[in-house]
Amino acid sequence: MDCLRPAVPVLSTLAALLLGGGCIFNPPELETTGGSSSSGPATDATGPGETSNDATTAGVTTNGATSADESTGSASCGNGVVDPGEDCDDGNDDDTDDCVAGCVAASCGDGFVWAGSEDCDDAGESASCDDDCTAASCGDGTQNAAAGEQCDDGNTDDTDACVQGCVFASCGDGFVFGGVEDCDDANTDDTDDCVQGCVSASCGDGFVWAGMEVCDDGDMIDNNGCNNDCDLPFRYIFVSSQLYTGNLGGLAGADAECQTLATNAGLPGVYMAWLSTAAASPASRMTQSATPYRRPDGIQVAADWAGLTDGTLDAPINVTETLGSPPMGNTSCGGGGFLTVWTAVQPDGTSSGSACTDWSSDVGGGQWGRADQTNTFWTSWCSGGQCSWLSPIYCVQQ
């Protein structure tokens, strides 16, 4: 095969490669870059952009050298290649997968919510996100102070140290703290069955348990105003120092009068009027004492409720709250001039019926007893008359 000698050495080389003729013409002399020529055998020197005699493929340099693309590529987060200093590089900018901004591996606390692995990620604890990247919720077992939780034991047991609302158990929260509290009624009422300190009410605790105790002075000593069974050693009973018509404001108004008189006289306790209506009576509404009834001067009137209602008193109730004699009313019962007292009460403490429209009117008739009597007359002696007449009332400590 004949090889043509190209006018330009470079073109001859390229032509040979492209035509695949299998030969390259090496001219005896090459022009140099300076425009001068040299004689003698051709050398292996190449100019810029030219391949040498060793070249076998276009675009590949010779003598073992590597191209710039393969040797000097620059590292960049997001190029899909895990370069030195990177945890990962998935070639995207999706911060919900396992490789996030900065080419670091996704983790709880990085501020990005890892889809399928995290509920939330606020880069730390927040009111809506726990520090383990789960949604904050009372009862999840993770205490979240930012959400206002004092505790979180992950259960619904309100008898332990952490109760509803993820707050610490405390007296007054309405939940009985097992092994610590006897009771917890969520109130500050110390007259019920659960008192201060969340302990069960008992005689001697210093609180009067309504309906169960008459008194409670906080000790277990008898005859000091309150017995060690939390009952009074005795109850006062007296005739009022004031006169009233039959319009007393009902039983409530009459009770209030008794309480005022006793309080002003320095007598302790709660007082009710010895009066009946058609529906209520001393027997139905008063404390039936197991201890004696005494006048303010200390004289015993009856040993107990049974003695007060058996038809005979130990002494007449003829002493007022101020230790005075009973006032004389203006009734005309028996011709007048007797120590009449408003009652409408039978000797056994039950009602004799309505009087003065249940003590709310000074029109109509009434019923009286007598303060100077110890037989049944003390409570039931005269009926009829006028509700506008004046008489005192009996007052009994409860």
CATH architecture of the largest domain: Roll
Q: Give the overall average pLDDT.
A: 85
CATH class of the largest domain: Alpha Beta
Biggest sheet architecture: 5 strands, mixed
CATH superfamily of the largest domain: Mannose-Binding Protein A, subunit A
**What is the count of structural domains?**
3
CA radius of gyration: 56 Å
SSE class: little secondary structure
Level of helix content?
10-25%
Return residue spans where pLDDT drops below 50 for at least 5 consecutive residues.
1-74
The CA-CA distance between the termini, in Å, is 144 Å
Side-by-side strand order of the widest sheet: 8-14-7-9-10
| Percentage of β-strand residues | 5-15%
Number of strand segments: 14
What is the element string, with H for helices and E for strands?
HHEEEEEEEHEHEEHEHEEE
How would you describe this structure to a colleague?
This protein is low in regular secondary structure. It folds into 3 domains: 1-65, no CATH class; 181-233, no CATH class; 235-397, Mannose-Binding Protein A, subunit A (Mannose-Binding Protein A, Chain A). Helices cover 11% and strands 10% of the residues. The chain is built from 6 helices and 14 strands. It has helices at residues 9-19, 68-71, 250-264, 282-285, 305-308, 356-359, and strands spanning 99-100, 104-105, 162-163, 167-168, 194-195, 199-200, 235-239, 271-273, 293-294, 300-302, 340-342, 366-370, 382-384, 394-397. It has a 5-stranded mixed β-sheet with strand order 8-14-7-9-10. The protein has a 3-stranded antiparallel β-sheet with strand order 11-12-13, with no helix packed on it. It has a two-stranded antiparallel ribbon with strand order 1-2. The radius of gyration is 56 Å and the shape is rod-shaped.
